[in-house]
Amino acid sequence: MRASFLATDSTIRKDSRGTPYLSLKLVDRTGSVDARMWGKLPEEFLHEPPSPAYVDVEGHTHEYRGTLQVKLDRLRLLRPEDVSEEDYLPASELDRRALSAELESAGRELENEHLRALFEKMASDEDFWTTFCEAPAAKTMHHARIGGLLEHSVNCLRIARMLAELYPVDRDLLVFGAIFHDVGKVRELSWDKGAFAYTTEGRLLGHVVLGERLVASYVATLPEFPEELRLRLAHVLISHQGETEYGSPERPKTLEALLIHLVDNLDARAAMYIETTKNVSPGGWSHHENPLGRALFVPEES
Amino acid sequence: MRASFLATDSTIRKDSRGTPYLSLKLVDRTGSVDARMWGKLPEEFLHEPPSPAYVDVEGHTHEYRGTLQVKLDRLRLLRPEDVSEEDYLPASELDRRALSAELESAGRELENEHLRALFEKMASDEDFWTTFCEAPAAKTMHHARIGGLLEHSVNCLRIARMLAELYPVDRDLLVFGAIFHDVGKVRELSWDKGAFAYTTEGRLLGHVVLGERLVASYVATLPEFPEELRLRLAHVLISHQGETEYGSPERPKTLEALLIHLVDNLDARAAMYIETTKNVSPGGWSHHENPLGRALFVPEES
Amino acid sequence: MRASFLATDSTIRKDSRGTPYLSLKLVDRTGSVDARMWGKLPEEFLHEPPSPAYVDVEGHTHEYRGTLQVKLDRLRLLRPEDVSEEDYLPASELDRRALSAELESAGRELENEHLRALFEKMASDEDFWTTFCEAPAAKTMHHARIGGLLEHSVNCLRIARMLAELYPVDRDLLVFGAIFHDVGKVRELSWDKGAFAYTTEGRLLGHVVLGERLVASYVATLPEFPEELRLRLAHVLISHQGETEYGSPERPKTLEALLIHLVDNLDARAAMYIETTKNVSPGGWSHHENPLGRALFVPEES
Amino acid sequence: MRASFLATDSTIRKDSRGTPYLSLKLVDRTGSVDARMWGKLPEEFLHEPPSPAYVDVEGHTHEYRGTLQVKLDRLRLLRPEDVSEEDYLPASELDRRALSAELESAGRELENEHLRALFEKMASDEDFWTTFCEAPAAKTMHHARIGGLLEHSVNCLRIARMLAELYPVDRDLLVFGAIFHDVGKVRELSWDKGAFAYTTEGRLLGHVVLGERLVASYVATLPEFPEELRLRLAHVLISHQGETEYGSPERPKTLEALLIHLVDNLDARAAMYIETTKNVSPGGWSHHENPLGRALFVPEES
Amino acid sequence: MRASFLATDSTIRKDSRGTPYLSLKLVDRTGSVDARMWGKLPEEFLHEPPSPAYVDVEGHTHEYRGTLQVKLDRLRLLRPEDVSEEDYLPASELDRRALSAELESAGRELENEHLRALFEKMASDEDFWTTFCEAPAAKTMHHARIGGLLEHSVNCLRIARMLAELYPVDRDLLVFGAIFHDVGKVRELSWDKGAFAYTTEGRLLGHVVLGERLVASYVATLPEFPEELRLRLAHVLISHQGETEYGSPERPKTLEALLIHLVDNLDARAAMYIETTKNVSPGGWSHHENPLGRALFVPEES
Amino acid sequence: MRASFLATDSTIRKDSRGTPYLSLKLVDRTGSVDARMWGKLPEEFLHEPPSPAYVDVEGHTHEYRGTLQVKLDRLRLLRPEDVSEEDYLPASELDRRALSAELESAGRELENEHLRALFEKMASDEDFWTTFCEAPAAKTMHHARIGGLLEHSVNCLRIARMLAELYPVDRDLLVFGAIFHDVGKVRELSWDKGAFAYTTEGRLLGHVVLGERLVASYVATLPEFPEELRLRLAHVLISHQGETEYGSPERPKTLEALLIHLVDNLDARAAMYIETTKNVSPGGWSHHENPLGRALFVPEES
């Protein structure tokens, strides 16, 4: 293995025999992995290693207590001006163009003419659509990567479509809500300075209100949009957190709103499991500190 | 005492000697009082008395276990078509014109030109202003009366003005927020059919979101309104419930938002005490079932 | 409309003009509906009407404040010995044979030989299988009807199958868990005496422990069943309530357990909405008192 | 069975055949039991039966759905002036003189001279000691009977003595605290008007503060009482509810305070079980509505 | 800038270029500020810097990510024996003599003779009054500075006076409670050894009980003090935390007690905002870790 | 003092004069103690000291801020291969053979022949019984030592015996439950690799379910075991955590189950106090971070 990374959490420790070694985390677009380096360390890492720092490394991966780890043979500090920060932001590994096309096709197939017109307004607003396909779904909890919101929206869409066949629901509103329930994230979060962060309006108003406002601004351009549909759509957007303590000013009171909340929660929690156990090897357990708040098990066999 | 009321909770009971009597509650604009009637009851009240029903009564008040009560001598059923429903909705006992003038004067004295212009837009929208001065502040919890929102807003204004002298706060934003933090109630509640009720949009979106939207619609007519002020004002409106579990999608994060929440809460709780103990006589205790969830004491002396 | 029902909650009330009427609820296999009767009541209903009681009625349905209601023209008391109690227990309206066949086909298609063998053991135990296809899914919360557990299991199976295509999951364990996560209900509940009730072992041990024990008793007959699979399966069963406060001694720690919990919850909540709003007409609101704990809206259009 | 009782909760119901009957609860010093009366009712009970009312009855007990019940043959209303109210207040069935002697003997055997002197002060204050031996331990939750506080104190004393042999504890402080932790009940509650009730100072200050004050008033008469012991004793008294939400301003922070809280809780909960299941027959279940908040089981055999 | 401070949290870090620097916090009577030092560090700070330690520094302030910071040019360690510890305890910046006079004047103006006599007893007890004017209002949460309790009491007094004009309240009791609700802090906390700390009696009994006891000891010297007033005053003192989980054995049940709690809470929370954002520059956000538990915003303009 | 220990939490700090010293914790079978070393440190401890590490030390104990501490004069690193790991696992200081004999004698004295037979099955299964007498009662909370489960079971037995004389309880079931309520710990925890840890089945199923299963496997060998007793015993085992949020799928619903829960809780909390304050000297306070979540006081005198 030979590549460059953002090195974080670098510290010098000693092993049980008293030998000092460097412990650090290597981050790039594909995620992060723990690493260790014994032996001759570069001058800059001898005492208090710089952290975070861009580095160039050589090494090989192995398993330690059920989790993948990298043992470094060589480590070299890169200067910030020599790297391109966005290369080190985690990003979706899926084909974002294909995912975006899947959403667009779902939008074109909406039978309700008003929701279809609304979708078209939004998807054809190039600035918005580009941002929507690029945004992370969260700062840290799940899908915290470029394109993460897109991945989450596509998963929710797929589940929603299936549920529309099980329950007596307004299919078009369910599909529209599945795609755009988290749209306020495009304003709540920023991802342009080498890190995911909250914006000031994100912290003052939150993605629930910002998302409702954003969709309402497109609805305002459609004079024929029916009043009741506008209300039901706004309700889906503001209630999707499911409970007031999670930031929804009202709880879901229509079947579409209830299902959007449950689907959002389901995909978010599945992602938390998958992302937390990414480097855990079969038969092993993750750490306790993760968004699900408990150690997670990766079976030997499945 | 001789007057007409809305009679509610009418039931036939027997006293400790086995004598039957009618127990009921008499409601009109000034509030409600418990009543009892022994002896010859009108035919319609003999078995299952109609409830609610409009009635004409004669009787006299006395004290029973520390609470005022009316003993009826005469009771006559009125036909719904013979009464004017709005006469029986509880209403503020204060001079609503004076209260409204107090708000308008506070609005004219705002030093920030943008907030002053915004206030003028709102106060000069006659439909809105009339509704605002007429609305109850809640369905049941506190200030549940015609003009109740106005009373609550004036109290909050008075406290806010005083606090502006204690803390390093944006006085104009504090004053504006004190007046309008609950403005969404004008759309969340209805009071036109002889009772206070929730509207459908009130139940689907809630007064927090409806209030922010309503103010935003006036801000939208003021192109010079500064962006940061718009954001801070929206934050005051959506965070005034103080905690997410009480329906605010974000908690207060500016000093103005924090104080508005605390002032709103203070006046609401004081009103709960005052309204609950209205008919309790000195040295007595109220019932447990009231918005504060505990029996309340009315001292002998104070 | 002319039919026989179980009449519950019968009381005499008076309308706003003082005219007395009978208010009651009519229950049969298909659910329940509110009813009213004015005019000449049968002798037995004149003062304190018997409740519950089996009755024969004639009348017609209409809408009242957004909810369907029956206005009765005729009402006759039936003697308990003249009715067959099970005809009045709510029962699934779906074809239970088709649903059961859907489960059996899913069982036969399991690729994991051990889970397939386990399924066959269970489905071929005629006593068990008949009971499983007959049991309600709950006493009151959702799917409280004969065949309700079967309906719920089939819905969970359908959603689970779809999710197996989205997430890196052990498809067979997910399918098996979707079908049998609530199997303990067959021992927790009884439905043989004209009502759904908890059994003594249901109250002392609960369906979570009873279900795990029941499946374990079939696993014990399969000596080849792998130890880790046995453990993961037990984990799915005991953790499916999702949180300890809802009765799971451990929270889900594998992806299969997590998804089973989420799917169970999703179908249960959708059913609560659907069952609560069954008689609410378009544009109307349900009562607050229902398993979701909030008034629910039925849109005009969808 | 023939005796007089306080009859509460009297209502007329109809059985499944439509026959009306009287349902009521019979209360006296020994507790309460449900009763039913079919057939010819006294005039006063025909429509709305007086409740509560003193009655003279004849009848016989039998078991109904696992709970003892009385079927009345004869029922006669007594006039309040013909009964002695205190005869109908539930009272301890144990020998209060023996219990009181057990406490006094424990007090005399305290080895710590200061606590022994304090105990003597209190036990020799005749007004106080009589009241202490007469008070109920609560208004409704457990030991709600004349002498109930005494019973509870003796039980706590017995358990505390045993624990003093298991743990490295200040035996004398533990014994003293076991006896007097709930002493504030003598001022929080009143039992002189035919019912258990809260006093005004009981509602304003609570038994935790009142008990600490009461003991402190006796300590104040003992100038030699060591300062640290005074503090540790006050801590035991104010922390015995165990958690702030149950009304202790501080949680237990010494071993004696911790054990007093746990012993108090243990005896209170055991009493809740015993009192709730008093009339439940073997193999039966109690109602849900009781201080433990769950149906309780009485085994067949034990 | 040149001055001496208590330096805390000193650690050596490296910047993004790998250059080591010293990070520390400088504390004195006026509060605290973050500081950094690059370049030649004194010998004692080279490896593990002593912390806390008294230091003499030269440097200049600048803004970093929206928070004021000091860049040090020179740093010298002082020996503990060369400093006067109390100079480094944070202290009120207001004129404590003027604040104390404001309280005394309010006390003299009480119309109720008993409360006025009580106030005079307390204010003329020189030891007590000096301590009261010197005490901090808390160890860390708000007003954690010499004279902090005085500042908080004066603020509460000012708000209480204003509220006495809005609500039908016993003005004198409200004023007295506003001044002395937190008086127990003088025994709960100590501030004589260079730091704010809890006393043993503070941890065992808490300021709620200690405050009530302290006032009661002065009331005991006034034989004419009316019983009901004594009870209402004790209630104000023990209930001022507002909820049992915050350490009040009873919740407020009189209007005075309710308002004292709300005023106490309002001033405490306003102080938390003000103290947390002291060094945050306009347009910036505070850290999350502060008594309000959320990042706080300081607007650009206000 | 001269002995070998497991040294944990080793770090280099500087005192208030800037002198560096080593701070560490010394652990062996008898518990743990804080230690400090000034002056000449061994080479391996100069910069980042190895931690945990086995060490040989000389020094003497003294008191620091109310807690015992060791000041080291000499410190030498031991190689892992030169120590026997189990010597450093904390272990009960009591005579485990005597404790085990006490349980066995209690088992032989059970009057219920089925419970006595069950006890004999379990106590005569040598593998099981050895493990049961060796297991810790928890990983960290209380009795976290070899033989800790045995100590806890004996304490619970002693309290249960005493309670059987106070309450109308099935003495044999109470005694049996007191001994074996926590038996699932033998599978939930492991203690064979130099540390206490959770097993995989412990984390997936928990000691509540594992204990019930384990006892059920012995019951299964006793064909005469009565069905109701089997159910009541299973209920005691699964409900002993007392509340669902602490991991019991059902709450206690029999008197035996209720008492077992209360006794378990009582002994666990007493142990938390005793273990937390082990090294605190008279008049001192423990740290806040302990299983009871509050600082604990050790009186001067008792």
Shape of chain A: elongated
Q: Please, what is the average pLDDT of chain A?
A: 92
Count the beta strands of chain A.
7
Largest interface: A-C, 41 and 41 residues
- SS-based structural class of chain A? alpha+beta
Provide an overview of this structure:
The structure is a homohexamer of 302-residue chains. Chain A is an alpha+beta fold and 302 residues long. In chain A, 39% of the residues lie in helices and 19% in strands. Chain A has nine helices and seven strands. Chain A has helices at residues 96-108, 113-123, 126-134, 148-163, 171-180, 185-188, 200-219, 227-239, 255-276; strands at residues 2-14, 20-28, 31-37, 53-64, 67-77, 189-190, 197-198. In chain A, the strands form two sheets. In chain A, strands 1-2-3-5-4 form a five-stranded mixed barrel. A two-stranded antiparallel ribbon of chain A has the order 6-7. In chain A, strand 2 (20-28) and strand 3 form a beta hairpin. The longest helix of chain A is centred in the C-terminal third of the chain and has 22 residues, at 255-276. Chain A is elongated and about 75 Å long. The two termini of chain A are 28 Å apart. The mean pLDDT of chain A is 92. Chains in contact: A-B, A-C, A-E, A-F, B-C, B-D, B-E, C-D, C-F, D-E, D-F, E-F.
